[in-house]
Amino acid sequence: MEGRVHDDFGDEASEGSSVDTAGVSLVLDYERSCGRIPEEQAHNNPGYDVLSKDADGVVLRRIEIKSIGGAWTLFGVWMSATQLDENRTHPADFWLYVVEHADDDDAVIHRIHNPAGEATKFGFDDGWQALREPEIERDETGQALLSSTRRLLGWRKPEE
User: Fold this and answer.
1) How far, in Å, CA of 102 to CA of 100, rounded?
2) Dist. CA 28–CA 113, nearest whole Å
3) What is the DSSP letter of 74?
4) CB–CB of 100/110 below 8 Å?
5) pTM (two decimals)
6) What is the DSSP string of 78-143?
7) How far, in whole angstroms, is CA 150 from its chain's centroid?
């Protein structure tokens, strides 16, 4: 299984869209049908979308919802670094719910417990090139040349 961290890519609908709203509604209904008390969180809540509790107020599930307007494909759904951190901090009660066909009669909720704990690989797309260490010219001893360092820092000789 391969997991990735990325923003704004994949199958899922954008936050606040009709597909996203439909998926959240389906998840809230599902949680209630299981006897849990779901509390929808603000969209900017870090780490998850729904906190689902028992009658005593004990947290049973922290649910991150990914709503899709059609089929779940190879493009997949993506979790942010914050969502992965939340999963790693609370592996026993973290769930990823992927809602396929969220806005039509063929909706299916795929419930995945502790996805970060199940991932065996993480992929890195070409966007990671922006974070690579830059090439630096070095002398024969391995020391960085001053001209190379200045170029990397964007330093220019002050005009007189």
Assistant:
1) 5
2) 17
3) T
4) yes
5) 0.76
6) -B-HHHHHHHHHSTTTEEEEEEETTTSTT-EEEEEE-HHHH--EEE--GGGGGGSPPP--B-TTSP
7) 37
DSSP 56: T
CA angle 136, 137, 140 (to 5 degrees): 130
Q: Determine the pLDDT at residue 11.
A: 62
Q: Is 65 exposed, middle or buried (0-12, 13-18, 19+ CB in 10 A)?
A: buried
Nearest-angstrom CA–CA distance, 149 and 24: 51
Mark the ranges of the chain whose per-residue pLDDT is less than 70: 1-13, 148-152, 160
Cα gap 14→38, rounded to integer Å: 22
**Full set of structural domains in the chain with CATH:** 2-153 (3.40.1350.10)
Radius of gyration of the chain (CA): 22
What is Dmax (Cα atoms) for the chain?
76
- By DSSP bridging, strand 94-100 and strand 59-67 are parallel
